[in-house]
Amino acid sequence: MGAVPRTLQSARRRSLWTLVASVGLGSTGHIAAVTVATIVANDIAGSSAWSGAPGATVVLGAAVGASTLSAVMVRRGRRFGIALGYSIGVVGALVATAAVVSRSLPLLLLGTLLIGFGNSSNQLSRYAAADMFPAARRASAIGTVVWGATVGAVVGPNLVSLADAAGMGFGLPMLAGAYLLPVIFVGSAGLLSFALLRPDPHDLADDSARHAVGPRPAEASLRELLRRPTVVASIAALVAGQVVMTLIMTMTPLHMTEHGHGLETVGLVISAHTFGMFALSPISGRLTDRFGSPPVMFLGLATLALSAILSAIAPPEGGGLLFLALFLLGYGWNLGYVAGSALLASGLDYGERTRLEGATDSLIWSSAAAASLSSGVVVAAASYATLGLVGVFVVVAPAWILLGRRRVIATGRR
């Protein structure tokens, strides 16, 4: 491959950091909304039975949004699809604000469903970055964009109390102001994406002239794509990582508070988890570009298995081992997420990979919803330690698939 023209390098760099900034803004608003969701639902419904419903609908919205926005991107490009998802997320935040004011649970669930579309844009942005760079730099680009969510993970929850106070100062009910945060931050992400992702990230790709946006008769069907070995391996690792991470992370705060830990200790452990999920993403990208996706995916699965074991054996009265376990849980997920996304995005035409990416993210988020719901059932029927054992078991399947297809993946065959 010849040298990349300076103007193309500059355009790619500008678009990459636009995506990073948009993900940072979008994740700030999204995580702020998720932080208050269970509290708002419990207050409106007057019962904890409905407290988990907004969490489920926001994940469902992300799943529906992934496939819907990807279909839009096939025809209209990445820029339009990303901006559209953020715009729908803003509408959802306004609906959720109205729900708090009117004390309507159905309206709240509709709003959180639409807020999930904004998170879809956050997640699909990593593939927009992958479009712009050759295979040797694709994982680093993905890792850089995923790193942008670190901002939201740190800043989002800490803005909730300020926004709530500001909202009440303007006469809004308690917690209504928190839903104005995604209006501001997700709205800013949408405006930034729409204004600065020019030209479209796909048009900055090396192969953009040969793989134009729009339906192509030669494209394989989604069913045909799912039969390809590297696609199966990527999806298995991505879904397994999401399931293990969600299973253990969801119940950890409750497990800790039930064994006498204060909110400060819980917050410290969850902060270690989110740090592992996002902050080290550039390292994951560089490792993937250097050694290839399969070894890094194996490393991610092994790290997840170790974290699950540590979670299972950690003494309830001690937070040190759980701190390490939750950090490794986050980073194991990150390794598989970056490496699996890079492998999934390789070797396919624009329309093929965009449809496949949307379908995969829909499966990821649907699996997350199922894992979140089942985690409570497992703990109620057995124990928190059992979740760790289940996590180890879940890791086995994708590891086996990767092992069985390692030669096919190494040769680059689809």
Any key phrases for this structure?
single chain; 414 residues; mainly alpha; Growth Hormone, Chain: A; 2 domains
Summarize the structure.
The protein has 2 domains: 1-207, Growth Hormone, Chain: A; 223-414, Growth Hormone, Chain: A, CATH 1.20.1250.
Describe the structure.
With about 425 residues, the protein is an all-alpha fold. The chain has two domains: about 210 residues, Growth Hormone, Chain: A (Up-down Bundle); about 190 residues, MFS general substrate transporter like domains (Growth Hormone, Chain: A), CATH 1.20.1250. Helix content is about 80%, strand content about 0%. It is built from 16 helices and no strands. The two termini are about 20 Å apart.
SSE string: HHHHHHHHHHHHHHHH
The major beta sheet can be summarized as: none
CATH architectural label of the largest domain: Up-down Bundle
- What is the number of beta strands? 0
Helix content: over 70%
In terms of quaternary structure, the protein is single chain
Reported by name, the CATH topology of the largest domain is Growth Hormone, Chain: A
Class of secondary structure makeup:
mainly alpha
Q: Gap between N and C termini, in Å?
A: 22 Å
Cα gyration radius (Å): 21 Å
CATH superfamily label of the largest domain: MFS general substrate transporter like domains
Low-pLDDT segments, ≥5 res = 208-217
Number of domains: 2
Overall average pLDDT: 86
- Total helices: the number is 16
Shape: globular
Q: Beta-sheet strand percentage?
A: under 5%
* CATH hierarchy, class of the largest domain: Mainly Alpha
